[in-house]
Amino acid sequence: GAIAKKWLKQRYGVEIRGYMSQLGEISIPFQSWDAVNENPFFSPNRDILPELEAYLDNIRNERDSVGARISVVAQGVPVGWGEPVYDRLDAEIAYAMMSINAVKGVEIGAGFASIAQRGSVHSDEMMPEGFVTNHAGGLLGGISTGQDIEVHIALKPTSSIPQERRSIDKQGNAVTMQTTGRHDPCVGVRATPIAEAMLALVLIDHALRHRAQCADVVCNTPKI
Amino acid sequence: GAIAKKWLKQRYGVEIRGYMSQLGEISIPFQSWDAVNENPFFSPNRDILPELEAYLDNIRNERDSVGARISVVAQGVPVGWGEPVYDRLDAEIAYAMMSINAVKGVEIGAGFASIAQRGSVHSDEMMPEGFVTNHAGGLLGGISTGQDIEVHIALKPTSSIPQERRSIDKQGNAVTMQTTGRHDPCVGVRATPIAEAMLALVLIDHALRHRAQCADVVCNTPKI
Packing angle between helix B192-214 and helix B89-98, nearest 10 degrees? Predict the structure, then answer.
């Protein structure tokens, strides 16, 4: 992940960064990238930190856990990476993200919000200066558009909680079990660097595939 | 897709069925599987059909389009299909679903709703009679649990709408373009059989992998 991020940055100027966009019920409005690495939540919002801390302390005291939403953005991705049918770039991103433990959902761009959007709202118009919006999340037809690639993932609450839970033993008899030891009340807190690494690994694969297919031929489509 | 569905049914009793669970803003409550193949929406709810028809007629008259949510369920999947790290069953399902045109999001089980769930709610307890709930959507750690595999996908609104949209030409000059001809106001209406086929193809791959690894050794874990 780290090597892929570094090479993509040096070779293509691609910048891959993630942040926590929701912790349990608390939605985290994006303020700045600078804030992300200053706090253990990877929150892009400094003002909300006391609320996040109090919320998670409360969850821990209740011997419970919560989920989180992590967003990852790749900026500066060249136009044309990906494939139109097999190994689409969005499909490989979905595969990589769903491979992360505890992930139960993956969205590209507007994701599930696009269900209720009208076509006249969702589809991103182009002007000579560039795209007007980015509901597509930088991916159309499995191929990068040159806009920011935006991915969102849902992480479920930690399974191991120090409460009595019903289960069965090997013979199928009813038992109760309680997890002890150190367990995070939210595994999503640790997920941001993992999601960044996954996106970087998929992008470097497609950078190499694109280079193998197109060599370093320069496309004269106007940069927008 | 059809062959995979048939073989999985004959060999393992696996039944794979999908339905439309949301059309634009309209959520479609599940009533019965029988209803699904009686109407062109693949709606599992007969009572809502007049509303869906009026809604989509209105969208068409406005020369616009909307998205849809499709749900696919695989019942009777044996315990143990999948892989724990590479080629996890949930990751391959996400890959297959995101490969479908217009899909912008994939959820397994509770999906994005699991973000705000507590661990004490999300994690599915077991009783001698079986699991109490199925928030996991039949998949834990990349491997089938024997519960129904539940997948939800988000389809964006049709891009081709008969309205003037801003774009650019090959030289980067501003142009407007309007799509003409026949275009569905919702591509999601046609997506249910595709999503069923994709799930069947992933499951048959993993059925064969499981058989290659475990032959036909029978597991004596109690059936629940």
Answer: 150
Look at A115 and B154 and tell me if their CB atoms are within 8 Å. Answer: yes
Which of B61, B62, B98 should be substituted to probe chain A, the one whose Cβ sees the most A Cβ atoms within 10 Å? B98
CA distances (Å), origin B29, targets A189, A198, B51: 34, 36, 13
Name which of B192, B204, B205, B201 is nearest B72 in CA terms. Answer: B192
* Integer Cα distance of A12 and A10 in angstroms: 6
A172: nearest CB among B99, B132, B222: B222
What pLDDT, on the 0 to 100 scale, is given for residue B218?
Answer: 76
Given the structure tokens 């809502």, which residue do they identify? B48
CA B116 to chain centre: 22
With the CA atoms of A102, A106, A109 and A115 taken in that order, what torsion angle do they form, in degrees rounded to the nearest 10?
A: -130
Q: Report pLDDT for A8.
A: 97
Note the ipTM here: 0.95
CB within 8 A of B192, min separation 6: which ones? B18, B19, B20, B36, B42, B70, B72
CB A114 within 8 A of CB B67: yes
Domains, chain B, with CATH or none: 2-161+181-214 (3.60.150.10)
Element (H, E) at A75: strand A68-75
Cβ distance of A108 and B108 shorter than 8 Å: no
Alpha carbon distance B45, B36 (integer Å): 7
Using the structure block, give the residue that is written with the tokens 């139109």: A84
Q: What is the pLDDT of residues A40-93, one digit of tens each?
A: 999 999 999 999 999 999 999 999 999 999 999 999 999 999 999 999 999 999
d(CA A110, CA A150): 9
Q: Give A179 to chain B, closest Cα distance, Å.
A: 12
Q: Which residue has the tokens 């799930």?
A: B199
Task: Compute mean pLDDT per 10 residues along chain A, 224 residues long, and list them.
Answer: 96 97 98 97 98 97 96 96 95 98 98 97 94 97 96 96 91 90 90 98 97 82 63
φ and ψ of A180, to 5 deg: -120, 180
Contact B153, B100 (CB under 8 A): yes
DSSP bridge pairs for A143: A82, A140
Do residues B176 and B165 make contact, with C-beta atoms less than 8 angstroms apart? yes
CA atoms of A153 and A166, how far apart (whole Å): 29
**Which residues in chain B are contacts of A111 at CB distance < 8 A?**
104-105, 154
As given in the structure block, the two tokens for residue B59 are: 């969208």
Residue B216 — pLDDT band, cuts 50, 70, 90? confident
User: Mind listing the pLDDT tens digit for each residue in B103-117?
Assistant: 999 999 999 999 999
Tell whether the model's pLDDT for residue B92 goes beyond 70. yes
